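Notes from hallway chat w/ T.B., transcribed later so I don't forget. T.B. wanted the structure written out for a chain they're using in a teaching module, and asked if we could keep both sequence and structure tokens in one place. Agreed to drop them here.
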Amino acid sequence: MNIDEIPSYKLGQAPEDLHDKNPKLYRLVVAKRALVAGYETVEDDIEACITDLLADLRHLCDALDLDFSALDNRGFGHYVAEAKEMREEAKFEAEMAIVV
């Protein structure tokens, strides 16, 4: 998948049921919105934009006296749990397709 394949919605304009119907796509839409809002060259160099965003988040944590590493670890834990849930849902759907 490339960045152009992720839909762009302005804040508050994503379909209300997107989070429930397709949580993975919802997360991608939110992340893309953050990148597009902060960096005008998202489509030109997505890796540079993500690198800049990570650096900017570190600066923000410094300014707010927050531990970026601890928050990053917590975020990674959320990611692992969400990815596991999505894999389990995909496996269940595949098994149901075989039964039907």
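Follow-up for T.B.: Residues 33 and 89 are 26 Å apart (CA to CA). Might be a good example for the class.
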